[in-house]
């Protein structure tokens, strides 16, 4: 009996791990494809790298719709196992992404996490403020805009419910409850005496 329990537990953990690292279909590439790394381009750029397939991601810094294409400037971050950018305080730089599709600036807005598969097409000069920079450029074949993540530490608070009214006192032994900004504190009821 214990043998079957262990086997079931192993299969559950394995399926959970594989589900967490699944890459969305638009970002999938053929197995065995040698993807060009962002760090390799920054450190040693060669003509042989042009035309290679990349899968990069990061956070949108700006968007510009041109006459026949859209330009995204993206702050690069390393990708997780599922190809979602791992957003930290450390970035190796920015890159520019061109796509033939029209992208609505209200959807593809500044601060959204994005990943893309495309081909590296070299570098182009650009300004970041008053500083001149060389941006790696990719021609995008596929884009994937990630849903916004909620910071759970901001949204979950611990509540202690007493018989009289709930208070927002942190008690690690109590269960977490989702915080609602429209929450109103309960006021104790005062019964009015019928005797004058």
Can you put this structure into words, describing what you see?
- This protein has a 5-stranded mixed beta barrel with strand order 1-2-3-5-4.
- The protein has 2 domains: 24-145, Nucleic acid-binding proteins (OB fold (Dihydrolipoamide Acetyltransferase, E2P), Beta Barrel); 150-183, no CATH class.
- 15% of the residues are buried.
- The chain contains 3 helices and 9 strands.
- It is globular.
- By secondary structure, the chain is α+β, with helices and mostly antiparallel strands.
- The chain has helices at 2-20, 38-43, 152-155, and strands at 53-65, 70-76, 94-99, 113-128, 131-145, 156-158, 160-161, 166-167, 176-178.
Task: Output the CATH homologous superfamily of the largest domain.
Answer: Nucleic acid-binding proteins
Q: Give me the Rg, rounded.
A: 25 Å
Write down the CATH class of the largest domain: Mainly Beta
CATH topology of the largest domain: OB fold (Dihydrolipoamide Acetyltransferase, E2P)
Which runs of at least 5 residues are low in confidence (pLDDT < 50)? 152-161
H-E order: HHEEEEEHEEEE
Mean pLDDT: 79
CATH architecture of the largest domain: Beta Barrel
What's the total number of strands? 9
What is the number of independent domains? 2
N→C terminal distance: 74 Å
Q: What is the beta-strand fraction?
A: 25-35%
Q: Helical percent range?
A: 10-25%
Given helix and strand content, the structural type is: alpha+beta
- What's the tally of helices? 3
Give the strand line-up of the largest sheet: 1-2-3-5-4
Q: How would you describe the shape?
A: globular
**Major sheet characteristics:** 5 strands, mixed, barrel
